[in-house]
Structures are given as structure tokens and as C-alpha cells.
Task: structure prediction
Amino acid sequence: MAKKQKKQLTAKPTRNSTDSNQRTYTIPDYRLEKPDFDVRQVRKGSKVAYEVTGDMSAPVPPIRESKYLNKKQCIEIYRWMVLNRRMEVTLENLYKQGKVVGGVYFGLGQEACSCASAYALRKEDWFAPMIRNQGSTLVRGFPPRDIMMQYMAKAGSPTGGRDGTSHFGDIKDRNMVAPISMLGDLVPVLAGVALGARLQGKNLAVMTYIGDGGQSTGVTYEGLNFAAVQDLGLVLFVESNLWAYSTPSSMQYRVKDLAERAIGYGIPGVIIDGTDACQVYDAAHEACERARRGEGPTLIEAKMMRMKGHAIHDGADYVPKAMLEFWRKRDPIARFENFLVNVKKWLTSAENQKLISDVETQVEAERDLAVASPMPEPESAAGGVYCENGCHEIKPKYGMPKVKKGTAATLERTEAAIHLK
Amino acid sequence: MPQLTYLEAIRQGIWEEMERDPSVFCIGEDIGIYGGAFKVTDGFIDRFGPERVIDTPIAESAIVGAAFGAALTGLRPVAEFQFMDFIGCAFNQIVNMVGSAHYRWGAPGPLVIRGPSGGHVHGGPFHSQNPEMWFVHAPGIKVVCPSGAYDAKGLIKASIRDNNPVIFFEHKYLYRRIKEEVPAEDYIVPLGKARTVREGRDLSIITYAAMVHTAIEAAETLSKEGIDVEIVDLRTLAPLDRDAIVTTVRKTNKVILLHEHSRTGGLAGEIAAIINEEAFDDLDGPIVRIAGQDTPVPFSPPQEEYFLPKVSDVLREARHLKAY
Result:
């Protein structure tokens, strides 16, 4: 069993063709449990509701030890996760105080996926979060007050109040592409970032996320297929959190596991437990290394559950209680805390408490700064539609490699065929 | 000075920019070995290599999205749409990902989306469209529609050098029917500036793309009747050259707005509103619109002829407006 655990997480698919029409690929599954339940719409008296069936009694598995992370790194990831959650708790309080404009989106239960994945990126790699990946923006160097100011529509937000939530970016230092509300559109854009970098002689890892709901869109397919055929280093985390607003996975797709889609794209796929920070990191790390070697994209399906509603207004009463109970026991922060304090004994109880209270102090200071910052002037809505008058100097970020030009072709040529008469 | 077709002028323009600036590259369907459906990139892959002339799967959203991603790393992609009718397939990427990016998060998108548009070739509803207005309406996107070879070369070079997303609508009917003298040395035609094609005193026709030639033909006939027509070619639809519009109205006091695109929601409505705001007192007659029908572009030649604005439409309206 130990031997199996040491196997490489994102092996290339094995292709066994028993006859010319059949191919079989293996999709490695590195979870230590494989929960199997189904959510269906059923009629209960006068109402139609969701019902979950399946065995929900399994005990919580242990954290799978990482092949790569040392003690210091594990504690850092843990701290990012604690910061992620503490910031979202603060955002919820700010919302209840009426200080947030619009809604708040939570990544509760998904902190391991957001933080441990971004932790695998190097400074020069690019990424783009989705709405619940605020943790990844923290890991990449955005202070909590930036995210709070985004939600409070403050003048000092990274977008100057022009967009909210996680819709900000940074092409200079933190290499983040701003998401938009439409789902899947980041996939081809990140593929293009990898393409642009490669044209400049650099194989980067680029990482983004898509939900079990979001992956249904056509643009997801177009983008990942393009990355696959061009061998671009796109690490795509499919965050299988079982609910797309009020739509369960059973009404979103027919495959058993979204990682199986990798077969259709012709790329490696892997299934991991999204509530296990070590599994998340290991899969991310290996996929990023593949990307940096120029070996193309990887599809990582991280299984977990969205523990709050779609947004703060959504009480998510439609979620069967048994599912919430099952996944509450698998809270990523509680699991990792147990791993660090009780299993590895890398943190004493006192050190853990200090870490948590330091995070709380940090978040409170950030909140105070964000709350005190001003709203934008109305006139600041004008301008900036075009890039003009030298507002940006655009040049290749990584320098152009010397591409040898062919000498044969010249500019002159004669009559050529046309497509339509 | 060499005489080039409209198509060859575009081809040379892109080629020269790729020679001059190694950050320029081409991406699109069948643009590599095939040289593009209309041969605009003929010979490019031999000269610049497959790294800079990239054939894509049939995935317009991915073409635009990937071009934008590459632009974020500081490159200047030129993305080809085999027919601009297919631009609807990438609408969300163009308008919501790329067009508003500079406004929202300060990220410029220096990409050019180019391809053949327009009718007169019996292409039917999906190979004859003029989709420019969807993008004239969207903030952050520049829209260019050249009418001749000289302008086409200068404008494609200017578009590639522009830091904003530019949608470059080439008129397929003009590809091989227009031949003009085009300088061999480097020159650009600035975006956002109209051109007076023909000076006149009696009335102005403000138009663009293939309709410029319809206007020229009509003007020649009208001049024999003593009607002296001024023709203004807009060249760039967004940003619009409001000064040129106002100047010509102040000069002739009567104006016909002519475009191949369907009447409702077409550019003529926008220009009429601008004239109303800025030159109402200079008008000696109503603003006249001549435009395509409010239908999809039909396929059968007699039906397409019914759809398209014709020289006879311009003659009729000009005579009527002159007499007003």
C-alpha cells in the first residue's frame, strides 16, 4: 500500500488498445476515500426537493502525506488557509453591517484547494482565480484589504471601484488575469498567456480554476482543447464542489468523474481530495512541473463541497442536510490542523493558537484600513476606456527569442485562388 | 509606385509589421500552409515560421481568448476570422473579456481581429454580414473599415501598432476589385480620422467600405446633372471622426448617410443624432439614410440585389435632396 502512495500523481495516460476502436486510459485517483452518493429531485408531498442517497457513514480519512512539502511549507499553507477563512468571516460581518456593495461569495470548505494550489506556483507563473479562490490571491501577494476594498467598492481597490469581488488582476508583478462573471472564459485566456510566454522562449505554468458547473460551458472546452493541441502548460483545477448554485452535479453532466474528460482532451487527468491540502499541493506541483517542461496541460479534479450557498443571499436550503454533515467533518482547515498538531506534531497547541490569533490581528488591521478608505468620486467613472496617450508601454515581458526567418518567401506574388467566386 | 489590390495591400501591411516588430504574430484557422481562406497570409508561414503563424482548431472563443492572453504578456496578435460573420461565436470574449479590460483592471489588449465581411458575392446569410455595429456599440473596441488599398495597408499597420483591441473589417467584394497605387515605404493611416474622397458643394455622402465606390459611381453621374457631391469616407467607425462629419455638413448643408449594413441600429442613426446635436442649424434638408434592408442577407442573386443599397438608390435620393 505504501508503494501505491508513492506513485507519481499525474502519470501520462496509459493507452491499451485491445482493438482498433477501443482505447483505455487510467485516471489516477489519489483520494483515501471515494464517497459515492447521488442527488436526485424527488417529490415529497406537495414539494419537489433534492434527496441524497448513498453511504454517508464513512469515517474521515487521514491527510495523505505530501511527497514534497516540508514542515515549514505545510505550516505556511495552513496559515494561508486560516487567513483565507478569517478574511471571509470578516467579509460576512462587513456585509451584515451594510458595508459591502452587492453580494459576497464564499469559498468555505474549499480553502485547501485555493491556497495549496497557488502555493505550487513560482513567482513568474501566471494564474487566475474564480469567485471562490480568494485564498489564491492572498497566496500570490494581494493583502486582505485589497479584497475587502473590492467588495466594498472603495476607491483604493485594485480596480478603483470599477469592478467588484475577485475581478481584479495584475500583469506586472503578481501575474494575475482578472476573471469576469461568465464562466470558462479564463481557460483560453490562460492558455494564451502560456502561448505568449512560449513565443518568448519561456515555458511557464499557468493555473486557473473552473467549477463542476462552469465546466459545462463551450468556451471551457474550446480553451482546454486549444491548450491540449498546442501543448500549453495550463494547469486546470476543476473544483468539483457538487453544487452549481442550486444545481447538483447529477444534473450538470453524465460522466462519473469530471477528470474523465481528460481522456476526451487527450491530456493527463487526476482525481484528488480537495479538502486535503497535501493532495492539492502534490497534484498542483507535478502538473506545474510538467507545464514548465513543456509537456502540456493537466486536468486536476478536486473533490469537495461548497459549504455555504452560491452567495450570501442564498441560504442553500435545497442542499440535503446529510451532505453538509458529511463534508463538515471533512473541513480542510480542521483536517490540516489535526495533521499538523496531533499527527505530525509540527505545531504545539500553543503555537497553533498563536498562529490563529496573529491571523485574526492581521485581518482586523486590514479590515480597519479598508473600512476607513474612501469611496470613489463619481467622476472617477469616466475615462480609461481606451489605452491612449502613452498610458501603457507594451513590450514583450520576457524578451523575444531570435526566431530564424525563412528566406525563400518574398513579399511579391501573383494571382491566387479565392474562397468564393 | 506599385499598384496593389486591396487584399495584397493588407497582406503587405501585416507582413511589414511582422518584419518590423517580432512581437507581432498571426493566429487563426487555415492561415499557415494554406495561407488563409482568402490568401491574406500567403507565404507567411514560410517566412516567419509556425511559431508566429499559428493554425488553430475551429474555436473562435479560444482564438480571441488566447490572443488576449498572449497580449497580456506583451505581444501583438493578429487574429483572423475566416469570415467576420463568425464573430458572433466570440462575442463574449471580445466584448466582456477584452473590450472592457482596460477600463476595469487597467490591462490593455493590443490585438487585431481581422477578416472578410460584406456582401455582393452571393454568400448568403452567413458569408455576407456586416457585423460592425455590435462592436461600435461596445466600449473599449476600435472598429476600422477601409475602402481602398492605400487606406487598407496604412490602417492595418496602424491597427497593429495600436494598444487597443481593433476589429478590422475587410470588405471581401473589394479584395481583388480595387487596385491602387500604394507606396513601398513605411506609412500608416491614423485611426479615428475620416477622409474626403471627393470635394463637393451641393450635398455630402458620408459612408464607408464598399459603399464608398457606390457613392463615387453615383457622384460621377450626378455631376453631369449639375449636382456636385462631396463624399466622406469614415474609415474608422469607432472612435468616430465627429469633426469630419460636422465639417462636411456645415459645408454642403445636406447629407446622405450610406451604409451596406441594415438600416435599424446601423451607423446612420448614430451619425444623424450627432449631426442633430452639433450641426442642426446648418441643415437645409432632412438627413437621408440609405441602408441595407432589415432582413438577413439573402442568398439568391436577385434577392441579394434587393437587399443591398444600389447606385440607383443614391441617384434617386440625391436628386430629391438637392431639390428640397
